[in-house]
């Protein structure tokens, strides 16, 4: 047989050739486009050119740059915290269970402010021991407007110590926590304070003012004597460190406006927060970060609610951080949530529930393979064929109506294990923004790019948590206690994280002395910087 | 017209095998991740750069330890103004051995910057204590500060200069 005998072609060849060419084109050209170009993920932070011995270089967000100024306010007119409630925006939105417009909210804030100004003098201290509710926001905004100092605690265990060190002139609390407060104040032999209780109607022998009465007494608003300045501190937050110590941080109006700017910067323009959104948060308003999330919702005109697990002041056990906790946000009369600020435990619980439901379908292995393959190309979507057949119905079973409306999830308040990242991305198929927060800062300290879908297995044998990305837009970070000889060889610097920036508050020493302005704050966390500028928080000291 | 369909011809079999293989790859995509993370973005979406951006360690120099950094062997070029050491390797044209201001490489250039002169008599010998700059006029001090600003913006501050016995 000659060569031409081997190469005999017929009509089938033409057909097969046509099919072969189209299959080839399909395979090579139908690769999905990554949501963010990988070249941007290779340089996420701008590193300093010089470093001190034992420290790493100073890192900033690549968008801000080492020479850039930190963005301090979300809009040029927002200087103090009460400016977050924009009066020109008129549509009502729901905060927990109250449907309210901005003008009504501003009126309530000035009413309560005038009422409480009649009760306590301007240089007094008010302790706010409330779970998250609209009264908390009104109290906080009113006190900031009147320039009356307020204190919040991140845990009821700190109450005894705070009563001892900074005896307050007034305590705002609610009915369920009142017995605990009374006991704590009598233990500390603290008598000179006024008690203001939310939902209080019955008479009692102890002088207790009802929150609603104070608001109605202030119906004729008195303008505060001094207008609050952006740089002046108006609140102090006490929080616990993982090792059990207590730290307190003084926060000013500028800290909160910077925090809201950083939170808004988490979302690229394709998924930014607007008045059509509903934000649900699992971070308590008694923490600076939780309050900044609430202010971001207020500023954007979005509806807002928090999960029951944020309740700090309650009796009994705290609710578990799981799917039921997330679903309880739907009990409030808010529109279906679109942006969720959750903790890693919530996300892990959601992921395992969705995947368990999805496994019931016989197409699950194939769907998983296809979504995983597109993930390696940097693309994920909620509307693919595999979502319509397998994952979409699983998400609806677990999340209900929320499955359709949720467009982004921000993970903060803990370390997400790296092996939970890929299942979470596949199960939820929406941008997951992993962040690192600290009790001293109003905004996230580090945040990943919203569309970052890289799967970078760690080189070290121990399983490290997922990376938290570059420093936030208005934070600069460096590591100390770094091994110089290792870093000079080119290895990743590993050390304790120090941060600085307009969203990081002023840490107070044990006896309440303010530190110098704009000092580096020790977060107590250890981290490793990767070559692409992203940080990987390894744990606490 | 009758179509001839013959799967046993080599060309047809080859095409058929290719089509079946490609269809199998499309319907069952691979889920393996590469063992080593690629160091170029062209080689994969999940990539990491090979190295960190270069950083310089802030060191304390004395006139004796600063002197070798005059760029003569193609090394770094450092110069000091008012106790601040700048890495001017990027300006080899000016401060290298053949440059106009090569006298200043590896030395304390404070007096020269203040008096706007590149003469050798502006420099202090390396075994002498540092030039205290006490006899400079206020406008010369201003001139020196202006040069410090210029250098801070253009070059990297990589150390400080102290006396030979103070290190």
UniProtKB/TrEMBL annotation, chain A:
Alphabetical keyword list? Membrane, Transmembrane, Transmembrane helix
- Transmembrane as a keyword of this entry, yes or no, is yes
InterPro entries xref list: AMP-dep_synth/lig_dom, ANL_N_sf
Q: Which GO terms describe its cellular component?
A: endoplasmic reticulum; membrane
- Every copy of the AMP-dependent synthetase/ligase domain together lies at 98-505
Task: Kindly list the GO molecular function terms attached to this UniProt entry.
Answer: long-chain fatty acid-CoA ligase activity
Superkingdom of origin: Eukaryota
Q: Does the keyword Transferase apply?
A: no
The name this protein goes by in its record: AMP-dependent synthetase/ligase domain-containing protein
Write down the species: Suillus discolor
The organism that produces this protein has a lineage beginning with: Eukaryota, Fungi, Dikarya, Basidiomycota, Agaricomycotina
From TrEMBL, chain B:
Family listed: Belongs to the cytochrome b5 family. MAPR subfamily.
Q: What's the name of the protein?
A: Cytochrome b5-like heme/steroid binding domain-containing protein
Classification via Gene3D superfamilies: Cytochrome b5-like heme/steroid binding domain
Organismal lineage? Eukaryota, Fungi, Dikarya, Basidiomycota, Agaricomycotina
Q: Which GO terms describe its molecular function?
A: heme binding; metal ion binding
Species this chain originates from: Suillus discolor
Q: Which UniProt keywords apply?
A: Endoplasmic reticulum, Heme, Iron, Metal-binding
Q: Which residues form the Cytochrome b5 heme-binding domain?
A: 61-162
Where does this chain mainly localize?
endoplasmic reticulum
Location in or out of the cell: Endoplasmic reticulum
Cellular component aspect of the GO annotation: endoplasmic reticulum; membrane
């Amino acid at each position: 047989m000659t060569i031409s005998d081997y190469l005999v072609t017929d009509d089938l060849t033409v057909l097969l050739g046509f099919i072969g060419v189209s299959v080839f084109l399909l395979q090579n050209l139908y690769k999905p486009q990554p949501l963010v170009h990988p070249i941007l993920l290779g340089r996420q932070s701008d590193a300093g050119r010089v470093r001190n011995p034992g420290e790493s270089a100073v890192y900033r967000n690549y968008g801000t740059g080492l020479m850039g100024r930190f963005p301090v306010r979300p809009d040029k007119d927002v200087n103090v915290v009460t400016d977050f409630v924009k009066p020109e925006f008129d549509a009502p939105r729901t905060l927990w269970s109250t449907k309210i417009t901005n003008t009504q909210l501003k009126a309530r804030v000035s009413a309560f402010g005038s009422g409480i100004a009649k009760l306590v003098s301007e240089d007094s201290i008010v302790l706010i021991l409330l779970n998250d509710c609209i009264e908390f926001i009104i109290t906080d905004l009113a006190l900031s407007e009147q320039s009356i100092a307020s204190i919040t605690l991140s845990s009821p265990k700190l109450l005894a110590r705070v009563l001892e060190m900074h005896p307050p002139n007034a305590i705002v609390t609610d009915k369920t926590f009142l017995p605990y407060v009374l006991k704590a104040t009598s233990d500390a032999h603290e008598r000179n304070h006024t008690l203001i209780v939310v939902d209080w109607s019955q008479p009692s022998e102890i002088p207790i003012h009802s929150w609603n009465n104070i608001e109605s007494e202030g119906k004729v608003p008195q303008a505060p004597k001094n207008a609050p300045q952006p740089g002046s501190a108006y609140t102090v937050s006490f929080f616990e460190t993982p090792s059990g110590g207590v730290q307190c941080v003084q926060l000013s109006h500028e800290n909160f406006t910077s925090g809201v700017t950083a939170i808004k910067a988490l979302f690229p323009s394709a998924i930014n927060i607007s008045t059509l959104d509903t934000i649900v948060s699992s971070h308590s308003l008694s923490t600076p970060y939780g309050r900044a999330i609430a202010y971001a919702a207020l500023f954007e005109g979005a509806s807002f609610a928090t999960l029951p697990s944020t309740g700090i002041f309650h009796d009994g056990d705290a609710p578990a951080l799981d799917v039921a906790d997330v679903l309880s946000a739907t009990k409030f009369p808010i529109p279906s949530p679109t942006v969720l600020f959750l903790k890693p435990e919530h996300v892990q619980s959601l992921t395992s529930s969705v995947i368990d439901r999805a496994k019931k379908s016989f197409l699950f292995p194939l769907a998983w393979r296809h979504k995983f393959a597109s993930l390696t190309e940097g693309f994920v979507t909620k509307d693919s064929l595999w979502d319509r057949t397998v994952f979409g119905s699983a998400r609806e079973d677990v999340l209900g109506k929320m499955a359709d409306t949720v467009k982004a999830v921000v993970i903060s308040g803990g370390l997400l294990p790296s092996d939970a990242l890929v299942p979470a991305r596949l199960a939820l198929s929406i941008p997951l923004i992993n962040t690192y927060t600290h009790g001293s800062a109003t905004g996230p300290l580090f945040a990943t790019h919203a569309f970052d879908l890289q799967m970078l297995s760690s080189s070290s044998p121990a399983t490290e948590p997922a990376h938290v990305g570059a420093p936030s837009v208005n934070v600069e970070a460096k590591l100390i206690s770094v091994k110089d000889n290792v870093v000079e060889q080119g290895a990743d610097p590993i050390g304790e994280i120090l941060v600085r920036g307009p969203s990081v508050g002023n840490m107070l020493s044990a006896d309440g002395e303010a530190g110098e302005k704009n000092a580096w704050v020790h977060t107590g966390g250890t981290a490793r910087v990767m070559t692409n500028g992203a940080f990987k928080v390894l744990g606490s000291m | 017209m009758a179509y001839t369909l013959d799967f046993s011809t080599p060309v047809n079999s080859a095409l058929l095998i290719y089509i079946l293989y490609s269809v199998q790859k499309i319907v069952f995509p691979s889920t393996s991740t590469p063992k080593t993370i690629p160091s170029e973005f062209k080689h994969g979406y999940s990539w990491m750069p090979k190295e960190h951006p270069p950083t310089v360690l802030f060191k304390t120099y004395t006139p004796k330890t600063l002197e070798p950094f005059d760029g003569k062997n193609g090394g770094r070029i450092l110069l000091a103004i008012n106790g601040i050491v700048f890495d001017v390797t990027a300006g080899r044209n000016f401060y290298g051995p053949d440059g106009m201001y090569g006298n200043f490489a590896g030395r304390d250039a404070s007096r020269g910057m203040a008096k706007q002169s590149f003469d050798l008599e502006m420099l202090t010998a390396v075994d002498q204590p540092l030039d205290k700059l006490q006899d400079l006029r206020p406008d010369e001090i201003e001139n020196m500060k202006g040069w410090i600003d210029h250098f801070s913006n253009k070059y990297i501050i990589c150390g400080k200069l102290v006396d030979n016995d103070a290190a």
